[in-house]
Backbone:
């Protein structure tokens, strides 16, 4: 059954960047588990994973670098889903997009013939690199750049986009949204299981939308695939619906039976930057495609699908 929301939960604080009072929340979570008869995760007969894709300030908090419109409401629903379903969610697996200043999708990597950096949201095609419209700022990287954009287009991936500097390792933007972090911590204490954090995206020469591996080259996160494969159900939420969520699901469909995947569509939103880019159509097309392959597109506020006896088909 669904649980009530704990007294500390404040939906109005979902956009605040703040310190989580760990000691207080730990004591509250232990008492909450005792009051509501919540058993340790190790006792779960049906193992359920909640995979949280990049619920970080850089994407989710207004005023940060790649704010996704809709993310605050997504996170409000997400936190309430976690609190209400503490006893059903076995483990939470949060991913953290992790970047450095010098990466192929940041302006510092590229220059034009006059040595100028590209503005944010510039799309870089194979033709652009071949014609010298954009080239690697470091001459030794030019061949790698050309090989990379060719591989993106050949593989049917998004073209290279120059994103604003974001998810910078060590910065505030890299951290989980405070309200989400608080819910994840509360779950960990109540269920007696730590979240399995996953770092992604720190290879300087490739993008990594998917949590399972980079767009081109690099090594796949085989350990994460194995972990997710150990669950009876994998629930997926986070940002952005059009990019990191979509490509993660695309990859997972090659490794897991589609009927094990549950996409919390009201806990994710597409990248939209007015006047620059709008990936709403791509996100909607991806969800339609995943459903056609047998994944479940569901809502966090209607959780009959989450119960062991629920009809899932």
Residues:
């Amino acid at each position: 059954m669904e649980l009530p929301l704990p007294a500390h939960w404040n939906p109005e604080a979902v956009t605040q960047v703040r310190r989580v009072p760990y000691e207080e929340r730990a004591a509250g979570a232990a008492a909450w588990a005792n009051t509501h008869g919540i058993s340790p995760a190790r006792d779960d007969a049906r193992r359920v994973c909640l995979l949280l894709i990049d619920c970080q300030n850089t994407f989710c908090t207004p005023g940060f670098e790649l704010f996704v419109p809709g993310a605050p409401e997504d996170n409000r629903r997400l936190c309430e889903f976690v609190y209400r379903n503490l006893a059903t969610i076995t483990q939470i697996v949060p991913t953290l997009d992790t970047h450095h200043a010098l990466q192929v999708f940041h302006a510092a990597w590229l220059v034009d013939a006059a040595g100028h950096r590209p503005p944010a949201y510039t799309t870089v095609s194979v033709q652009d690199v071949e014609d010298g419209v954009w080239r690697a700022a470091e001459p030794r990287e030019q061949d790698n750049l050309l090989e990379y954009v060719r591989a993106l287009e050949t593989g049917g991936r998004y073209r290279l986009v120059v994103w604003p500097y974001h998810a910078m390792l060590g910065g505030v933007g890299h951290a989980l949204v405070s309200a989400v972090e608080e819910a994840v911590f509360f779950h960990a204490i109540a269920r007696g299981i730590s979240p399995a954090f996953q770092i992604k995206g720190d290879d300087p020469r490739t993008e990594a939308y998917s949590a399972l591996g980079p767009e081109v080259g690099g090594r796949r996160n085989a350990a994460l695939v194995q972990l997710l494969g150990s669950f009876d159900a994998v629930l997926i939420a986070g940002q952005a619906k059009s990019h990191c969520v979509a490509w993660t699901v695309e990859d997972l469909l090659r490794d897991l039976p589609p009927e094990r995947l549950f996409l919390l569509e009201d806990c994710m939103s597409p990248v939209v930057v007015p006047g620059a880019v709008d990936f709403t159509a791509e996100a909607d097309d991806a969800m339609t495609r995943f459903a056609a392959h047998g994944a479940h597109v569901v809502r966090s506020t209607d959780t009959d699908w989450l119960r062991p006896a629920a009809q899932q088909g």
Q: What stands out?
A: The two ends are 21 Å apart (CA to CA).
